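dumping this here so i dont lose it again. seq + smiles for S-adenosylmethionine
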Amino acid sequence: MLLSPAGVEALRTALTRARFTSNGIADRLGPQATGGVARNDFRAALKATEDRDPLATLIRVFICDQTEPEAVVASALAPLDLGEAVEGGLLERHGDGVRAGVDLEPYGDEWWVLADVPASARPGRPLHSEHVLGIGGATQTLIGATVRRPVGTALDLGTGSGVQALHLSTHARSVTATDVSPRALRFAATTAALNGQDWELLRGDMVAPVAGRRFDLVVSNPPFVVGPGTTTHVYRDSGRVGDAIGSELAAAAPALLTEGGTMQYLANWVHVAGEQWDERVADWFAGTGLDAWVIQREVADPMAYVNLWLTDVGEAADPQRMAAWLDWFDAHKVEAIGFGIISLRRGGHADPVVRVEDLRQRVQPPMGDQIGAWFDRQEFLQVRDPEALLAERYRAAEGLQLRQEASLGDEGWAVDRQVLAMPHGLRWTEEIDPLVLALVGGADGRLPLRDQLALLAVAHDVAPDELAEAAGPIVAHLVERGIIEPVAD
Ligand SMILES: C[S@@+](CC[C@H](N)C(=O)[O-])C[C@H]1O[C@@H](n2cnc3c(N)ncnc32)[C@H](O)[C@@H]1O
């Protein structure tokens, strides 16, 4: 840990006493200063904390990144000894006072997370090679995407600050967290102790420390950045060439999961000229026996990608680094890099589904609920043959909308395109033909689908059996996306 057990306890006492919590800070600063802080405008927050009482001092040091007199900070952190705080790296001496040595963030209603101060807050200072990532965009993506259902055992691979493990502790009976970096593990252990948590913390390369063990839920925000395999910063670089960390985790998943277990991780994958990116990524799961849903949320071109990651470690101005990285992309015909969420389920089905798709639209949070429901729908589909699917009754999703595009001609409006739109959840849009539109429109949960199709066949003058056969995959697709939902008896 960064502090002794007694030191962590003393820190917890100081933070609790001062009300250095999300709510305590918001109450103290008020909405205007709180809004300003979110935009990195600290003027109102600094004004509201001029008194230098303990909460004001902690806000100035850990939120507004101010250097404050030692005696004032010592009094705000008491009973934690200031010397121990400096020794442990919590504070650093600066000018004629002390300032934050780590990012100590109140998180959620009751938690604190410890991470390194971001590169942007210490311009010109090189990032530690074992820099411990704070709560950024990717971290939050995985937090939001995780299926939060009660489980027995949960594993966080590459725990860093421990923030994913913290969330796992709300719905898992036991939490194991691993990291290759001893420094990161010290941060995670401190985050755990500060929040009164007891996790099993293991050091080692990816799944090596848990070889032979299985978990009900595995999450990982691994060092997924794609490149030549050079490692300068462990939070970002896996040391694997290209996007191999993504395929490596896919290959490891079957042996990590209990029956019915779920694994979710973030990944980057390359789009190679002359190859279908989705087929390439789907290949990662061939032979794993797992149901897989790969969601591509973003795509970046190589230049933007390299710029982003060099800026992230404060190296954007190094033309040699940029050139080497871009040359590697050129040599491997990488046209773009995809970012997304991979969710796997050990469903035990003979014919597992592997779906790789683009989902760039804004979705209704939390995405984890949608991902959990997607696997439930897969379960429904996988245990039914086409006959059984037709025997079910379905209801169109609540709030479903129809959007039409039409052109005005001599005969009046002619509909060119009809699109079904889900206004909530994953907000899918789906172009459909008039027959499917009629099927969805008529899905009111009263008739079994076979009877509904028989009526449609008469109305559209098609053979009922042919229609039933053609409808099978379409219905499965509509169910998979939640556009029609089976009605329970
Ligand atoms: C992107 S950070 C994620 C940190 C945290 N879990 C989060 O979601 O914010 C990746 C983490 O993986 C760790 N890591 C890097 N290479 C690893 C490896 N080969 N095996 C295990 N952990 C690794 C890093 O030290 C870092 O803590």
